[in-house]
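Troubleshooting log. The previous structure file for this entry was overwritten by mistake, so regenerating from the original sequence record. Sequence copied from the archived sheet and checked twice against the printout by T.R.
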Amino acid sequence: MAWWQLNLGSGRASQPRGPEAVAWTESEVLESILSERVTFRAPATLLMSDWGRTTSARFAVLSDGEIRFDLASLPASLRIEPLASCCVTFVHRRRAMVFLSQVLRVDPGSTPENPRQVALRIPSRMASEDLRSAPRIPNLRGSGMVVLAEEPGGRRWTSIPLNLSATGALVEFPESAVPRFRHGAEIQLVIEHGEISARVAATVRRVDGPRIAFTFPGALHGAATVAPKGLDEILRRLRTPSLGAASALTA
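Regenerated output below.
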């Protein structure tokens, strides 16, 4: 886990240009990351310290001194209070990112076009970890596993997994039935292996023809990565040689 100790100023980072351009400072890099996530309205997970549960959100606005998130459905019994501590986790390219911040205010919102928002203080430091550091199980073609990709409307596509880890998967669709998922799209993956099935919330990270790479936002728990519920059992099964395979190795 790599920590950056930063002090974000109010100035917006800009790409250095020309022969005399200097390298970005670390603070500009961090602010650039937040700005890019806002541009793509990227998904994030918020963990409030006062009630210990997570809620889904999307990056919405970055301005001087604050970063705002659109909130998904939040039970009426749960309140987000100003000055409360908040842990934010999200995916940036191939890295899991996490930062701690303080709630400035909550804007109630009233319509889908004007959703409820929480405004957080811009963090002074952030941690990052390469998602590829999670142990990845390769060469899954022929393993008998099937991955179904399901859009919010319920339409499904069947794919064959190529590799799988606690934080993501690479799958391949038939040439005649490749979904037109856009980068950053949120879908559900139903991962089936024998009698075990796991439903995992996934985000499209890369599209390369019939091959699509996904990340699992639910695997991010603060500074740690944990396999989403149900997927942990599938990963354990894949890592454990079958009795037949073990007998062949000792014969």
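The radius of gyration is 20 Å. Archived copy saved in two places this time.
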